[in-house]
Write a structure and sequence with these properties.
Structural class: alpha+beta
Shape: elongated
Number of domains: 2
CATH class of the largest domain: Mainly Alpha
CATH superfamily of the largest domain: Winged helix-like DNA-binding domain superfamily/Winged helix DNA-binding domain
Oligomer: single chain
Largest sheet: 3 strands, antiparallel
CATH architecture of the largest domain: Orthogonal Bundle
Strand order of the largest sheet: 1-3-2
CATH topology of the largest domain: Arc Repressor Mutant, subunit A
Number of strands: 5
């Protein structure tokens, strides 16, 4: 299991995987060199590591090699990560709903936490605004109801 994490730990390899994912098909080594802005031998070295771990496949056509993503080894990583991305909903000291993720200190957790907090705040503001509007409508109805009952308008 550690092998796949070692492979994915390298930012260049992750970028190659992202490029292949976005291409939704095949990319030649030259295309990856142009997209990444790094030397061809470096790209080839990383592609070899990715190929050895089953993350990319290659099709040879003459002297050209075309690479495509094979995400199936990432399923093992996804299964391993699942418990860390399980969300728990709770209440804070003020009774407000909060969302926690197991990766709260990681960049993912920080983004998730900010998004959850922003969403919770927006929902709370919308709810409070709706309550204020309902209360205002109730007051207006309460003020007009006696007049309507007496026949005044």
């Amino acid at each position: 299991m550690a092998d796949i994490f070692d492979v994915l730990a390298d930012g260049t390899r992750r970028e190659i995987l992202r490029q292949l994912l976005e291409s939704r098909g095949e990319l030649a080594v030259g295309d990856l060199v142009n997209e990444l802005g790094i030397a061809q031998p470096t790209v080839s070295k990383h592609l070899k590591v990715l190929r050895e771990h089953g993350l990319v496949g290659v099709r040879e056509e003459g002297q050209h090699r075309y690479y495509h993503l094979d995400a199936s080894p990432l399923e093992e990583v996804e299964v391993w990560l699942e418990p860390f991305t399980d969300f728990t909903v709770g209440k804070d000291e003020n009774g407000a709903t909060t969302v926690y993720a197991a990766w709260a200190g990681a960049e993912f957790g920080d983004r998730l936490g900010r998004t959850a907090a922003d969403t919770a705040n927006a929902a709370r503001v919308a709810f409070e605004t709706a309550q204020e509007k309902i209360e205002g409508a109730r007051q207006r109805v309460s003020e007009k109801l006696p007049k309507l009952r007496k026949g005044d308008s």
